[in-house]
Each structure stands twice: as structure tokens, then as C-alpha cells.
Amino acid sequence: MIVRGGLAGFLLMLLAAGLLADTVVLKNGKRYDGKILSETADSLTMDVRVPRGRADYSWERHTIARADLASLLYEDLSDVAGDLSIPRDPDYNSIMFCPTPATLPKGDFYFRDFELYILNFGWAIRESTSLSLMTHFPVVSFMDFGSIGFKQRLVDREEHAIGLAVAGSYTFGTEDIARDSFLTGTLVAGGGNRERSVNVALNQAWKEGEETELFVVAGADSRTSRRSKIFVEYMNSTTFIDDDDFNGILNLGIRFFGTDWSFSLSGIRPLENTGSLFLIPMFQFSYHAD
């Protein structure tokens, strides 16, 4: 099936983008890509990837004197957690739709724009507490919908194997847009750090005059280079989508970022029979300020 084949190709592309490699450049201009195995004050040892054709390569072990180094770039930041010259993803408190148990530094203010239309503002009032407001771009003279929310970190994932947080939101709006007002309570659990993480959010939604809904949002991300990440998310909520055939969505994407900004581009795949539809494009821009 074309859709399945295309989806498999997209996944392979993301996986290929996720291959990490350390890069060493010598003063004579020679470049080595591979994996640094050990370092001393005078030298480093690395396995270097050597091409052996269009689709094949082998590994060679090299010991390189530090006196010969022009530059050294670590792609696996678990080895250089203290290197402040390498930017961290400023949006580590969420994947795209899936929250993480992490919260932002006190005083951090962020603005996020989804598809140009959805506007999200957030403010970390404490290291463990943040507030948020979401609405839409003023294309009409009245506000069709809005949402206010909070997030409270309970267990810091930087200090423990698993982090925990609770969150809540109240969404209000017109019947055509938001399908009436509703409340959502969320318990978030996740492991990892700013470079890569796995997260699950258990959500309970209450809507006036309707049955409550318990739904799951799960997401994972991993750094692929000094300024990019790949991510994947799953959500099975029907609170926002009124479709009897809806079985959830899969969201696959890549994020590019600097110290205080990020740009995410993804494709949303409904898990149902969508005919020739492959992916729905989604993008998000964010900016952070103190």
C-alpha cells in the first residue's frame, strides 16, 4: 500500500537523521566522523567510520594527538553535559502535544505559534510551577476559543529516574470551535533529560452534559545534531475530534532550535482509513525570554 510504504520511508528518514557521530577536524583539514571512545590530556581515541562504497562502511581505530586538533564536536551530549557552547532545546517541557514532567526556569516566558493560527503563552512563576494561556490569532472580532492552564512538577527527572508532574486546563469557546467548554486534568510521567526523553500523559477530560473521557498522550524525542531533534507522539483523544472511526493520531517530526527559539515541523497521521491521505503537515515556532 502506498500510504504504508510512504510512512515506512518517512520513519527510516527520521531514524537515519538520528544517527549520532562525533566529529574531529585536524589542523591539516582532515575530518573524522565516528565515536570517541576515550580521552586523556594529550590525546583521544576514536572509532572512525570509513566509507567502502555507496551503502557500506567499516570502522578504523585512531589515536589523535590533541596538539593536532583544530576542532572537536560532540554529537552525543551525554559526554559533554557541561559544554555551554552547545545549545539545548528550550522547549524541553513538551514534545509538541505531549507534555514532559520537566518545568522551565523561574521567570522564563515563552510564546508558541501553531500553524500561525493557534497562539500559546507560558510563564514559569517558580522553578516547579508554570501557567499558560492559549487562544487564536485575531482573524475575527471575537474570540472563538481560549484555554488557561497550569503545570506543577512533583518529582524532578534530573534527580530521579522518573519525573512526575500534574497539570490542568480549562478550555472555553463556541460550540462550532471547541464543542463547548471542558476541563482536563493530567498526570505526566517521563524519564530522560533535555537531550532525549520518553513521556506518557494520562488525561481525564470533563465536558458538560457528556461522559468523561480518559485518554493517553505519549511522546519521545532524541537529539540528532547540535541543533536538531526528532520526535514521535501518539494521542487517542476524541475530545477534540468527533469521528466514529477515529483511533488516534501519530505525529512524526523534527525540531530545529537555538538557545531561545525552536521550529518544529511534523506530519500527523490519523490511525484510520484516510484513503490517499498520507500526513497532515504541522508546524510550531516558539521563542523564550527571561
Output the keywords.
about 5% helix, elongated, mainly beta, about 290 residues, 5-stranded antiparallel sheet, disordered N terminus, Porin
Structure description:
The protein is mainly beta. The protein has 2 domains: 23-74; 109-289, Porin. It is built from 2 helices and 17 strands. It has a 12-stranded antiparallel β-barrel with strand order 6-7-8-9-10-11-12-13-14-15-16-17. β9 and β10 form a beta hairpin. The longest helix has 16 residues, at 2-17. The N and C termini lie far apart (49 Å). Mean pLDDT is 81; it is low at 1-8 and 10-19.
In a few lines, what is going on in this structure?
It is built from two helices and 17 strands. It is mainly beta.
Secondary-structure map:
Elements: H1 2-17, E1 22-26, E2 31-39, E3 43-51, E4 57-65, E5 69-73, E6 109-114, E7 118-126, E8 129-136, E9 145-155, E10 163-173, H2 175-178, E11 182-192, E12 196-207, E13 213-225, E14 228-235, E15 249-257, E16 261-270, E17 280-289
Antiparallel strand pairs: 1-2, 1-5, 2-3, 3-4, 6-7, 6-17, 7-8, 8-9, 9-10, 10-11, 11-12, 12-13, 13-14, 14-15, 15-16, 16-17
